[in-house]
Amino acid sequence: MKLLGNKRLLILMLGLICFIALMGLTFGKRGYETWPEKFVKDSISWTQGLIYKPVGMITGFFQDVGQLWTIYEENKVLRGTLSRYARDTTRLNDLELQNQRLQDALGFTERQKQMNQYKFRIAEVVSFVQQGKSITINLGEKDNIRPNMAVISVEGLIGRVTEVSAFYSNVQLLTGIDDKAALESKAISVTVKTKENESFGLIEKYDPEAGKLVMTKIDPNDPLQVGDTVITSGKGLVFPRGIEVGKVIERREGDFGITHVATIEPFASFNHLREVFVVEVPES
Fold it and tell me: Which residues contact residue 197 at a Cβ distance below 8 angstroms, ignoring those fewer than 6 apart?
């Protein structure tokens, strides 16, 4: 019985194969399809459509995801490149400005060395204190900085050293001169460059509203004129001789008319100080 059953199954499979082959040969010869063939073909096509369409959508989705990831990585690289370019451009501009300032400073010190035997120690401004009336620089006792040393910028005098620590110093600016604390009661003794004679006076006050210095103790017969350049006289034992301070923009009578008073426009700017110079005078 088992052998008979196997023979029937084998005969059935051979018959099915022959039927399919015969249909293929018949179709190839007659050039048209019968309705069972059309039904089978349409069923297979419909089934393939149900399978291939979702598969194609899923495949396209993963392809789009891959493309988006590639675009994301490219944008990430481009953003990093752009950020580095912007940072390098900013750094280059800052270095160019610093280089220009240092070149100007070097030219200034060379000109001063031709006039005097002073040494100029360049320092960076670390911070502004006391509402812009004082600054901190990165030179101190280790750099042989001492109190009362004059401090200048490229343009002219800006103040003097008041306090010194190991690595830093505080500098009292000219903007800190007032009636109560005129550089610790030490006024700036100055002279004025004129064509014929030297004028003499003291700078004892800074007018914050006008942004000008006030020069006092001027003799009424002194030939000081508007437009003259004011320099330190070296007689006050604090500021060495020959440092430019500013120019005269006004002259008038002082209190009681005994002496005259002049308004001085400082050469130095006190708002954007970055590099300054501490003047070291050789001891005689």
Answer: 223
Helix (H) or strand (E) segment spanning residue 51? helix 35-115
Q: Label residue 277 by pLDDT band (50, 70, 90).
A: very high
Amino acid of residue 157: L
In the chain, where are the structural domains located? 60-115, 119-280
Span 224-260, pLDDT tens digits: 889 888 888 877 667 888 888 999 999 998 877 789 9
At 168, is the secondary structure helix, strand, or coil? coil
Asked if 228 contacts 247 with a C-beta cutoff of 8 angstroms, the reply is yes
Residue keyed to tokens 């590099």:
275
Q: Give the whole-angstrom CA distance, residue 176 versus residue 189.
A: 16
Q: What is the value of pTM for the model shown?
A: 0.62
3-class SS at 226?
coil
On average, the pLDDT of the chain sits at 76
- Assign domain 119-280 one CATH number from 3.30.565.10, 2.40.10.350, 3.40.50.150, 2.60.40.1190: 2.40.10.350
With b for 16 or more beta-carbon neighbours within 10 A and e for fewer, the 89-106 pattern comes to: eeeeeeeeeeeeeeeebe
Residue 27 is predicted with a pLDDT of 46
